[in-house]
């Protein structure tokens, strides 16, 4: 069993409004990301939210299991750790899919799961036209690093530690490179008509 983890408890400071609540093709960002993970084959899917009722309500509407992050200001790694604590030993790994990448397709998630299962790699990362993107698969063997309280830089540090042994999977999905952090990026995404999952 491979779970999906959706961290959406960041401050969205550059956007000026919660990214989880933004809309793409009639869905909230959090709904689009949860759908990509669940349709792609992740089970269960966990969404980690701040202590803000409107975001928690939107996350619950997706059908994901919702966890509340009491310390979101300490960075997205805290959301990962809450999810891993909740999952325990029940999963072989997780796909970590930030809410600001709402255009990733479900078939990309399925491709990552297939690669994780067929190769046994500890880390699986999608690429598009030679560029690494999101989301990433982390096998259970890396959980101790992700939960290490001395870890600096969060999940990105763990990715770079193991990049030389990671399975890089080329996908025909430009959404893996599309990180929506600012109003200008959001408007550009809408103008381009980028596909939802």
Structural commentary:
It contains 7 helices and 10 strands. The mean pLDDT is 93. Helix 1 (29-40) crosses helix 4 (106-119). The protein has helices at residues 29-40, 53-61, 77-87, 106-119, 143-146, 155-161, 183-192; strands at 2-7, 23-24, 27-28, 45-49, 65-68, 93-96, 123-128, 131-132, 136-139, 167-170. By secondary structure, the protein is of the alpha/beta class. The longest helix is centred in the middle third of the chain and has 14 residues, at 106-119. Strands 1, 4, 5, 6, 7, 8, 9 and 10 form an 8-stranded mixed sheet that branches. A two-stranded antiparallel sheet has the order 2-3. The protein is globular. Helix 2 links the parallel strand 4 (45-49) and strand 5 (65-68).
Basic shape? globular
Distance between the termini: 21 Å
| Rg value | 15 Å
Q: How much helicity do the residues have? A: 25-40%
Unreliable stretches, pLDDT < 50, 5 or more residues? none
Largest sheet: 8 strands, mixed
* Strand content range: 15-25%
Structural class by secondary-structure content? alpha/beta
Quaternary structure type: single chain
Q: Average pLDDT across residues?
A: 93
Helix count from the secondary structure assignment:
7
Sketch the topology as an H/E string, one letter per element.
EEEHEHEHEHEEEHHEH
The number of E-state strands comes to 10
